[in-house]
Amino acid sequence: MFELTNTYKKKKTYSDYAAKDDGYRYELINGELIMVPGPSKFHQKSGGDLYVSLYLFITGNNLGEIYYAPYDVILDENNTVQPDILFISNENSLNNQDKALYGAPDLVVEIISPSSVIYDRNIKKELYEKYGVKEYWLVDIENKTVEIFENIEGKFSLFSYAVEKGKLTSKVLNGFEVEIKDILPNL
Amino acid sequence: MFELTSTYKKKLTYNDYAANDDGKRYELINGELIMVPAPSTFHQRSHRDFNRIIDYFVMKNSLGEILYAPTDVILDDDNVVQPDLMFISNDNICNILGNGYNGAPDLVLEILSPSSIIMDRNIKKELYEKHGVKEYWLVDLANKTVEVFENIDGKFSLYSYAVEKGKLISKVLNGFEVEIKDILPNL
Fold first, then answer.
1. pLDDT at A2
2. Chain B residues near residue A4 by CB distance under 8 angstroms
3. pTM for the full model?
4. What is the layout of strands, in order, in the sheet containing A107-112?
């Protein structure tokens, strides 16, 4: 259970994160190591389907790189996350080192599950906002909803969404569209 | 389907909202009439259980009043909403008029369903934030999660939450606690 205010506890850093070798997956969020539970089959199917759609568009148009978890994104000394899917534009490629991206991806997708909803919708969302992720996709499998936010001066603003049916569009990936039923496994 | 930017369309007001008599339930949000679909039985059970617990606490401690949907909350001339449940402190009872509550309730609860999630998590959340609702409870039935936000300088900040198990606390209702399994019908 993580503490929302961490004034008295010493904050952990990337070195602590990298030294973890107990076999579990972690993220480093506001100086705390948070264990990431294994994903559900719905999470994997949804993530996989969306990744394929994005991959085809991104590589087809030579826009940059697209990765799926687990790939380290080092936002700062106390924050290293592993987004479900991340897009790094060509302009951003210099920040992409051997083992991590230093700084914010251009686009991030998080697939929500009960164990991750608090982080994806609140804490990580605020981190992505603050560090300049341009576009944030939230795929809420249980609620059959996808929300897409654009970053306007450090604040995410909803600009595309669908509930059970409808089309989703991207601004960062100009021209990219996908039907929600193609990325939600239980529809 | 509501439009996120409504620059060219004439904004509707409270009078338009009140004059609507087609028998369907609506909310007026940023000058647009948005239809409210009928709730599911999961929604109703969660609502009933939470209402029972919070109403008793408020009554026993003489803190104010609990009102619930479909009571109109007239936030301003372009915005009339019907939160699932709200708490009005003794100091604010004078704002309860015949036609509804005028202004921002002290505490608002929204129970999420796929059809309401976009509104409850984004647009209505921002309205409540801006108009000074002190505490905002979001019950995400499908993800078995409850999030509680406090209003800090016009921005909601997460301070209490539970996923499948655990206790939720209120700041506005000092001493109020509830176990998540007592308000999630499917746990």
1. 57
2. 158-159
3. 0.91
4. A64-68, A85-89, A107-112, A135-140, A145-152, A155-163
